[in-house]
Amino acid sequence: MGFKVQDHYFKKAKKEKYLARSIYKLEEIDEKYKVLKKGDQVIDLGYFPGSWIQYTQKVIGEEGLVVGCDIKPVNKKLMHLKNVKVFEKDVFDIQNLEELEVSKKFDVIVSDMAPNTTGIRSVDQDRSLNLIEMVFYHAPQFLRPGGNLVIKVFDSNKAQQYLKEQKNLFESFHFLKPKSTRSVSKEFFVIGKNFKA
Questions:
Q1: Entry pTM
Q2: Domains of the chain and CATH, by start
Q3: Residues 192, 173 contacting (CB under 8 angstroms)
């Protein structure tokens, strides 16, 4: 479904030169839960087009690093940013951190990843859950002990059940539907703090 809602957040993003309106979701999450800090090394899974990277790289500053990973071709608009690396890769095929040109695990995983949607709610929910399961499965490989996680979820009973089983992996576990989320959307975000690897 390729409709663009020309709403307040869409116009705000254009005016502030962000690549997508989704920037304001991460900004609200970060202001509320303080998931990112100066000097962090962050991985953004399914980063395209890159508004979360634009936000993250400002917060972490020049001593930090944000690595974007997506199956889409690299967005060249991000190439000039000093503390950013972007890769055209399926993150779930990555065998080791060296493939992302880093030597230590990440302080934060963020993911606004969504499956290619069909418009059939049950199919889209299952595809979304599949991505979430993959992120949690790979978390120990990518996330350091004490690290934070932000991930998008399409709401469903199965997703709620699965998340309940994962919440002990973090010291605190929160759900949030940011204000900039479209009212018709069934998505929300999970914020996990202090990973107990």
A1: 0.93
A2: 8-195 (3.40.50.150)
A3: yes
